C-alpha cells in the first residue's frame, strides 16, 4: 500500500482496550473497512453491536487476512511473534503491518528478521494505556492530546514511516514523534516502567494497608497505575530489564539526595528542587482537548 | 458555641485555595454568615464578587473577630501561630477555632499551650489539596467524596469534636475520621509527603529533561503534585521530619526488593506484588460523586 485513506482495508488483530480504541477511532473518523480478528467471539459481538468495525471474527479468516492492506497488532509481545510465524503466509505482498507494543528492543528486530521480504513491519507505540483491560473499556478519546511514537529501523521505507505517522494522526494523537529502538526503550523505562514500579511499591508497602479512609488525591494519583495487568507488565519489564534497572538505580540515587537534604534540614536545597520540579512539570501538561 | 447551624457566625482567616473552598462550600450550602479576613484586598473583592462570603476585610476588624463563633484558620503554620498570639485577646469567650494545617505535631500542642483557656482549638485536616494556590482556584467540589480528619487531643471537649466533625460533613466530605496527632502525622508522612518527594524526584531527575513529547498519562499522574508550593511544603516537611525520613527509608527498602526481583528475573514474584497492588488499590477509589 502507498496511501492511507478512508477506503484502506485495515485489520486489527487483538481487540482489547487498545485495539478496541483503534477500531473506534478509525471507524468514527470515517474509515469504511476496519475489521478485526480476536480470540473471543463475544468481543467481536461487542464491537459489531457498538458500530466499531465493519466485520470481525475469532477465526483465522484467510480471505480477510489476504485482503488487508494495513494490519495493526495489538497483542502481547510473545503472542504477536507467534501469530506472525503461524500466519504470515496469508499476507498479500505489499501489506504493511504495525503494532502497539510497549517495549521495542526484543520484538521489533525479531519480527523484522522472520518477516517475509515483501511485507513491511513498521513499529509504533501509542502512549495512551489504561489500567483496565478489555474491549468494553476501549475509548477513542484517550488518544486526543496524547503522544504517538513511530520507531523505524534501517529496514523501514519512507513510505511505511509516512503511513504509520498518518495512522497516528488519524487516530487523533496530538504529537507524532520518531525514536530509535534504543531511545524508545530508554525513554519508556523512565516514563512508564519506573512509574509503574513506584506505584506498585507504594501500594504494597505495609504503610498503605488500611489507609483508604484517610487518603487524599496525591496518593490516589501516584497509585492509579498500580491496578496493573500483571502478565503483560512482568513480560514488558523482563524485555527491558537492563534499561529499567538503570532507571531504578538513577531514581534511587536522586531520591536519596532529597532525603539527605531533609535530614540535614536544608530547606533551601529542598525548595530549589521543588521550584525546578514545578517549572519542568508545566511542560508536561496535556494540550487542551 | 454549642451547635453549628446556618446562623452560626463563621470567620475564615486566610482566603487561599482551601479557605476559599470552605467559604464557597458553606455559603452555597446555606450558611448565612460566612466572613473572612485575608491579607490581600483583591481576594476579598473576588470573594464578594463571586458570592462566596457575607463580608470580608484585609484588616484586623475587632468587632468582626469578637462576633465570630467559629474561626477557621487556613494559613501557613508559622503565620497561624503568630496570628493567634497577636489577636487572641479579641476572641469572645466560648469561640471555637479550627485549622486545615497539613502537619499536626508542631502546631496543635503549641496553639493549645498559648491559647486563652476560654477558647477551644480543635484541629482538622481536609484531605483535598490542590496544586494551584490562590482563591481564584478554590473549588467546593474537591471536598465531595474526599476524606476529612479530626485530630483531637486531651484538651478537647466532646462538644468541639462534634462541631468540627459536623463542619466536615457540611463542607461535603464523604468520610470523617478521628486520629491522634501521632497517627495523623505518620499517615500523612506516607500518603502525602512521601508522594510529593517521589513526584519532585521524578521531575528533577536528568531523565525527565525534554521528555514531554513522548510522555503518557502514567508519568503525568505521578508528577501532577510536583507543581508544588515550595515555601509551604518545605515548612511541612521540616515539621514532620522524623516521620517522613522513616517513610522514605521504608519506601526505599520495598523499592529495592522489587528491583532485586527484576534483576534475578523472578517474574512470578513481580506478578504476585502486582496482583496485591491491584487488589489493594481497588479500595482507594474515590466514591462516585
The structural domain count of chain A equals 2
* Average of per-residue pLDDT values of chain A: 94
Oligomer: homodimer
CATH class of the largest domain in chain A: Alpha Beta
The chain pair forming the largest interface, with residue counts per chain, is: A-B, 87 and 87 residues
What structural class should be given to the helix and strand makeup of chain A?
alpha/beta
User: Major beta sheet of chain A, specifics?
Assistant: 6 strands, parallel
In which range does the helix fraction of chain A lie? 40-55%
% residues in beta strands of chain A: 5-15%
Q: Provide the CATH topology of the largest domain in chain A.
A: Rossmann fold
Strand ordering within the main sheet of chain A: 3-2-1-4-5-6
Q: Element order, helices and strands of chain A?
A: EHEHEHEHEHEEEHEHHHHH
Helical segment tally of chain A?
11
CATH homologous superfamily caption of the largest domain in chain A: NAD(P)-binding Rossmann-like Domain
The general outline of chain A is: elongated
CATH architecture of the largest domain in chain A: 3-Layer(aba) Sandwich
C-alpha Rg of chain A (nearest Å): 21 Å
Uncertain segments of chain A are none
